[in-house]
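Here is the promised in-class demo. Please do not try to memorize the tokens; focus on the logic of going from shape to residues.
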């Protein structure tokens, strides 16, 4: 259309540059263009000629891709541009141009990627198509008003749990198997063999049976474990497109599965500027389902976390020594002072495991070779940021707090390994 208008502007100069009698040529050209445009509009597909139906998924897991099945029906071999209107909780799909087949139908899968828990809203689809000559366009908005619930990614947790269960060290941790010298609960007597710990020899039983016997122990079970989630404003910041809080929830659900398999009791606690949801530790088979429901309802807050209020409230709820796993984050050493002090107070009575999700961007910036002054400044700032995080971790460890500072891809594995180590060493 722009080319035709440009050609018309050139023809309009003919009466001025060549001769006034040539205005007829320009006028005829304008008449032809108007007639072509009106004809293109007349033969263009009308608004009601293109129908659209959408079939959304029943559930959407955060951080996992799903799709909405869209079906188009209209004029055969018609090119249609699609633009999607979505809510804030879902990433907007890319615009796409589709061509209907000879029967005038087409099926398309619209990719969906949830950014936060809640409801992923598909508000509408904007359709645009051109006439046979490409001069006229029609734009139509087809409302969808579809809301798909977004829940924690329990499917990824289940798949990762199946993979981890094939590892020998994890199977040893959750099955009731005994090894000489491990644990504090007496399991059985066994005849001595080379390689066994001499300290495990039971001399009285050996004298009575006239052969060397060793005592087998197993780790104590039925520990109380509490997953404490910080839901303040720092935990709503995204890492790899998913908020820190949801990375923490996925890791906690996977660890809860392992803990329940190992015979321990698991509970949950949430806090931000004030205490939130609480689930007392339980070892029943329904505990994991209750954890999934409660974590799905955890909201994102814009307030600063009050560690004093949150940790004090949690301490009053726990009647016995427990393993408290705190999922949180911090910015620098100054803002972490109150957090460190409250972790120290909590560690006097309970075993505290501090879990922080590490942003991989500062690591990449600090290790990259500077190409100019700006990249050098970024590398220096990133290195200072990492040094402050390391300083906070060292201060927490000096107070007896177990610490994990890992990126989202590694946090689940490191968390399970640390739990198994705590279980073997009977630190709770």
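The designed amino acids, position by position:
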């Amino acid at each position: 259309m722009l080319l035709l208008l440009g050609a018309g502007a050139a023809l309009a100069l003919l009466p001025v540059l060549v001769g006034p009698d040539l205005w007829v040529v320009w006028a005829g050209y304008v008449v032809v263009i108007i007639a072509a445009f009106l004809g293109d509009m007349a033969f263009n597909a009308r608004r009601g000629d293109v129908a659209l139906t959408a079939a959304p998924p029943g559930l959407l897991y955060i951080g996992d891709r799903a799709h909405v099945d869209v079906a188009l029906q209209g004029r055969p071999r018609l090119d249609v541009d699609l633009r999607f209107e979505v809510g804030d909780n879902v990433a907007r799909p890319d615009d796409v141009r589709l061509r209907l087949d000879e029967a005038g139908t087409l099926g398309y899968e619209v990719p969906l990627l949830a950014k936060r828990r809640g409801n992923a809203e598909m508000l509408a689809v904007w359709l645009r198509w051109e006439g046979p000559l490409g001069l006229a366009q029609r734009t139509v908005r087809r409302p969808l008003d579809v809301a798909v619930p977004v829940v924690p990614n329990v499917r990824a947790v289940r798949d990762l749990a199946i993979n981890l269960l094939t590892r020998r060290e994890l199977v040893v941790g959750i099955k009731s198997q005994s090894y000489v010298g491990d644990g504090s609960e007496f399991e059985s007597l066994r005849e001595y063999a080379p390689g066994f710990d001499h300290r495990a020899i039971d001399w009285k039983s050996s004298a009575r049976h006239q052969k060397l016997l060793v005592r087998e122990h197993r780790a104590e079970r039925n520990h109380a474990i509490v997953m404490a989630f910080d839901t303040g404003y720092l935990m709503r910041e995204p890492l790899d497109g998913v908020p820190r809080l949801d990375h923490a929830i996925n890791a906690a659900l996977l660890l809860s599965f392992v803990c329940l398999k190992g015979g321990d009791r698991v509970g949950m606690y949430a806090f931000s500027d004030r205490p939130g949801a609480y689930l007392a530790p339980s070892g029943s088979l329904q505990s994991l389902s209750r954890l999934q429901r409660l974590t799905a309802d955890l909201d994102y807050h814009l307030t600063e976390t009050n560690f004093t209020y949150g940790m004090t409230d949690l301490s009053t709820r726990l009647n016995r020594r427990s393993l408290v796993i705190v999922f949180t984050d911090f910015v620098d050493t100054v803002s972490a002072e109150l957090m460190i002090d409250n972790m120290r107070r909590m560690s006097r009575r309970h075993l505290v495991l501090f879990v922080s999700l590490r942003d991989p961007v500062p690591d990449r910036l600090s290790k990259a070779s500077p190409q100019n002054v700006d990249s050098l400044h970024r590398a220096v700032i990133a290195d200072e940021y990492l040094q402050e995080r390391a300083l906070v971790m060292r201060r927490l460890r000096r107070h007896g707090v177990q610490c994990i500072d890992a990126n989202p891809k590694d946090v689940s594995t490191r968390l399970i390994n640390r739990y198994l180590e705590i279980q073997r060493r009977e630190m709770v």
